[in-house]
């Protein structure tokens, strides 16, 4: 029988389901794992990854399965394995193995799901991200969800919204089992970044560095938690092309994190390809690093994440004023949004089973119930506006980018030039910078913060030494 990769111990899964049942007031929740998705014809599928709510409460990534969490018992509805399945894919875990791994009270054939939903008192569910599964949910539950975009909490009826809020409340604060697994994913990411540093050199292609990074993830039984960003065009925020050739004087932005047993990590470092930062690169690198350290030092329970974002923005603005790129007084520049020309995204986000944890529910997890997104350029991309609590894991990832389209836009860069807040001529001397981001994964503790990815070098001297020595020490 194959060994089962699980995202939590069975006792943890039982405790999570019991916590959910306590808040559901007699309702019965159904979590869908989702279906395999074809790439180009049905038998050639993308690698299957079960939906995170299913994995969080059910523990095993079984395609087509549905987990029922009732007031007093839980049932795993599975797709039975046929001899033909065993022929092509090997033997599936039997019901006893599944029951032992998940701690559920019962295993049933998913063919009876519609009857189970009909028999349940006040059944509720959350919209799956894949469309095929969403259509199946809509059929079984008699729902009328939009088909042209991801369903978010605002689309849900009251029962499903109650479930969404209950799930968010539980998943926001990671239990010890979850934290241990996120730490393990971070250790893989440490090794992967080390391999990336060893592979980078003038004349190599970005693709070669990506391959080195991801090969370490795969060798650990992990995989990328998202499309790795490995690029000398670091100003393209979600760049997933890898065709450029590295040269002396380039900065290589590496945003790569492993997912291990369903738990994510998310780390960015920015490396000088030639082993030394150019003076103008070093100046702005230090500004980003100071912004990141300022934010990390302020992480503590009760602190509003948006305030951390604004603190980092002020450090960046201060640094840009000192370098002659921004002109004026720091608070006024930040108030006007001038820093956002260079730091347009948010300081960070929740991290857990999803790299942007629970973003399938829109802002239900990232934003406290009484808060909504700003529509100001920059702040509109802030994914997290909650007061921090012990057990939350967040990323802290300020960055600084020179994006021609933003700097030249009439209503953005040009408008600030007209207001004499930005000196584009001075900016030209920083052209080699392109994009710098420094990102760590941070656990909020009772006392403050535990930086889970602190072992990956980020001080400029340490980064230069790592590139020069083609690697850095393994995680302790
Ligand atoms: N790698 C995605 C992010 O940093 O949010
Ligand atoms: Mn990242
Ligand atoms: Mn991130």
Number of discrete domains: 2
Uncertain ranges? none
Structure annotation, total helices: 16
Q: Any idea what the CATH superfamily of the largest domain is called?
A: Creatinase/methionine aminopeptidase superfamily
Ligand kinds: glycine, manganese (II) ion
What is the CA-atom radius of gyration, in angstroms?
24 Å
Quaternary structure = single chain
Outline the biggest β-sheet. 5 strands, mixed
Question: What is the CATH domain class of the largest domain?
Answer: Alpha Beta
- The rounded distance between the terminal residues' Cα atoms is 34 Å
Shape: globular
| CATH architecture tag of the largest domain | Alpha-Beta Complex
Q: What is the CATH topology classification name of the largest domain?
A: Creatine Amidinohydrolase
Task: Report strand %.
Answer: 5-15%
* Record field, number of beta strands: 18
Widest sheet: strand ordering? 6-5-4-1-7
Features of this protein?
2 domains; binds glycine; alpha+beta; Creatine Amidinohydrolase; five-stranded mixed sheet; binds manganese (II) ion; three-stranded antiparallel sheet; 476 residues; 14% strand
Can you describe this structure?
The chain is α+β, with helices and mostly antiparallel strands. It has two domains: 10-172, Creatine Amidinohydrolase, Chain A, domain 1; 176-468, Creatinase/methionine aminopeptidase superfamily (Creatine Amidinohydrolase, Alpha-Beta Complex). It has helices at residues 10-23, 52-58, 83-89, 95-102, 113-119, 131-141, 158-172, 176-199, 206-219, 279-298, 305-322, 330-336, 404-408, 410-418, 424-428, 460-469; strands at 28-32, 38-41, 44-45, 66-69, 74-78, 106-109, 123-125, 223-224, 229-231, 251-256, 258-260, 263-264, 267-272, 393-396, 399-401, 435-437, 440-444, 449-451. The strands form six sheets. Strands 6-5-4-1-7 form a five-stranded mixed sheet, with helices on both faces. The protein has a three-stranded antiparallel sheet with strand order 8-11-12. The protein has a three-stranded antiparallel sheet with strand order 9-10-13. Helix 10 (279-298) runs antiparallel to helix 11 (305-322) and helix 11 crosses helix 12. The structure holds glycine and manganese (II) ion (2 copies). One manganese (II) ion binds next to loops.
């Amino acid at each position: 029988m194959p060994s089962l990769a699980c995202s939590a111990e069975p006792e943890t899964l039982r405790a999570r389901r019991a916590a959910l049942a306590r808040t559901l007031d007699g309702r019965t929740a159904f979590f869908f794992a989702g279906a395999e998705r074809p790439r180009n014809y049905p038998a050639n599928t993308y690698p299957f990854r079960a939906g995170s709510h299913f994995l969080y409460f059910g523990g095993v990534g079984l395609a087509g399965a549905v987990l029922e969490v009732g007031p007093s018992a839980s049932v795993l509805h599975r797709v039975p394995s046929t001899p033909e399945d065993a022929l092509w894919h090997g033997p599936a875990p039997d019901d006893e193995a599944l029951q032992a791994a998940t701690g559920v009270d019962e295993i049933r054939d998913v063919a009876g799901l519609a009857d189970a939903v009909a028999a349940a008192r006040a059944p509720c569910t959350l919209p799956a991200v894949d469309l095929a599964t969403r259509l199946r949910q809509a059929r079984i539950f008699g729902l009328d969800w939009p088909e042209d975009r991801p369903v978010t909490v605002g689309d849900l009826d009251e029962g499903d919204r109650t479930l969404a809020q209950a799930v968010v409340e539980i998943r926001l604060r990671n239990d010890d089992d979850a934290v241990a697994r996120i730490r393990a994913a971070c250790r893989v990411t440490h090794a992967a970044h080390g391999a990336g540093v060893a592979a980078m050199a003038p004349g190599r292609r970005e693709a070669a560095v990506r391959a080195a990074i991801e090969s370490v993830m795969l060798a650990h039984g992990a995989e990328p938690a998202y499309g790795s960003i490995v690029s000398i065009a670091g100003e393209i925020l979600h760049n997933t092309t890898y065709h450029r050739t590295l040269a002396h004087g380039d900065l290589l932005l590496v945003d790569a994190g492993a997912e291990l047993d369903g738990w994510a990590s998310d780390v960015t470092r920015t490396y000088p390809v030639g082993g030394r930062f150019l003076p103008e690169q070093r100046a702005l690198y230090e500004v980003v690093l100071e912004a990141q350290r300022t934010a990390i030092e302020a992480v503590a329970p009760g602190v509003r994440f948006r305030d951390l974002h604004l603190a980092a923005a002020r450090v960046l603005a201060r640094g840009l004023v000192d370098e002659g790129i921004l002109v004026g007084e720091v608070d006024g520049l930040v108030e006007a949004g001038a820093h956002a020309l260079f730091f347009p995204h948010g300081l960070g986000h929740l991290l857990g089973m999803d790299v942007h944890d629970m973003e399938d529910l829109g802002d239900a997890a990232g934003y406290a119930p009484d808060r909504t997104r700003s529509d100001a350029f920059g702040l509109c991309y802030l994914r997290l506006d909650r007061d921090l609590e012990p057990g939350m894991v967040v990323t802290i990832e300020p960055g600084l980018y020179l994006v021609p389209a933003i700097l030249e836009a009439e209503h953005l860069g040009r408008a600030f030039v007209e207001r004499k807040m930005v000196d584009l001529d001075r900016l030209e001397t920083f052209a080699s910078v392109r994009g710098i981001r420094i990102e760590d994964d941070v656990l909020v503790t009772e006392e403050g913060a535990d930086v889970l990815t602190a072992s990956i070098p980020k001080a400029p001297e340490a980064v230069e030494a790592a590139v020069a020595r083609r690697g850095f020490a393994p995680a302790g």
